[in-house]
Write a structure and sequence with these properties.
The protein has 14 helices and 16 strands. By secondary structure, it is an alpha/beta fold.
Amino acid sequence: MNNSPKARVLVIGAGLAGSEAAMYLAKNGISVVLVEGKSLKLNPAQKIPTFAELVCTNSLKSLDPYSAHGLLKSEMKSMGSYIISCAEKNAVPAGDALAVDRELFSADVTAGLKSHPNIQVVELEAQDPLELKKQFECDYVIVATGPLTSKALESWILKEISGDDFYFYDAIAPVVDADTLDLSKMYFKDRHKPQTDGGDYLNSAMTREQYYAFVEELSKAEKVPPKEFEDWKFFESCLPIDLMAERGKDTARFSCMKPVGLIPDADIEGKWPYAVVQLRKENLLGSAYNLVGFQTRLTYKEQVRVFRLIPGLEEASFIHLGSCHRNSFLNARKLLDHDLKSKKHPELYFAGQITGVEGYTESASMGLYVAFQLLRRIKGEESITFPVQTAIGALVNYIMTIEKPCPSNINFGLLPSMDLSREQRREGGKKLRKELVAKRAQDVFQSFYSTLR
């Protein structure tokens, strides 16, 4: 793919998907106009004016090659992912996960895009993609505005593309000042890993009494209500902690607060705590921590009151408090072709979370996928279907086949399963099945992608 065919592509949105798509095309000799309006006006979830802002958390999840998230990252790296490269350069300790210093990561992504000779960055709030295509004399458009698409552009999509109301809600976890934590009541440890000198995650253990008192306060705390014309619709993989409490007293204890693998090293009896709150470094300095899995609908006042019930957070100062925001998603199966171009407007592509995936790497991978397919089109080649046995192929297959849109992360449930012999089931069971599916995915992707170079 070292040829430099003549084409000009408009990319709307410099989030993870847009940044990935713009850089992939630019590196392959395509002239790119990258339109981003956040420097003019931040949306309710944004905090900084630079590109590829990680809004909800600073973690891009597991690097384990035998996990679904690890598989996805491996495939993206093979395709030359710009986002993964920047994330690795700005990583902070997070066990086997890839977490980053959000501001350094965003600044790095922005600097690379703005300095590339094939990319023209335009500060503008997009309203009509096809009009902008004409204005900037482009051949194709990629809309990668993410789930927080502006009202004007959302209105255009509703009128010209979807014709339906399309939305879910997402929630953001709070961030605390490290200097205000009482570390005497907390301990460093990574799940399941024996530690001699601590770990990357800061843990706060709760007794049975502390946990149920905490859940009770979560349940009755005041929440920010939805607007009159909308209902709360959340991703099952990213539920607010207060909604978990409403679903059942033990829901959180089997989710983000599960104690498994987090026995304090000082506990000579080796007993699991009843529940554990985990905190992860927000930056390289370790001056701030985010509460892992603590997305919330609570009002700001109630967040401070309730979260200070967590051992070690009694005097915590919150740098950022949690919030909820509406996300927009297309019905990809109904509206897009398998290369994610519009059925109604073939010169228009959609990439990232707006296509129906959920998660940072998932969003970036769809930007990479669309850019890959568009480059083939520019070169006069047919679009190509990624094998469903691969992580990228499984994500595309999911959004293109599910009847009722429901945003999803990458997970092994999206990939074809494998039958195990009776002996294999006895030896490894579920864990062995995942390892075999992961190994198959690695082999299939390498074989598939090597034939395209």
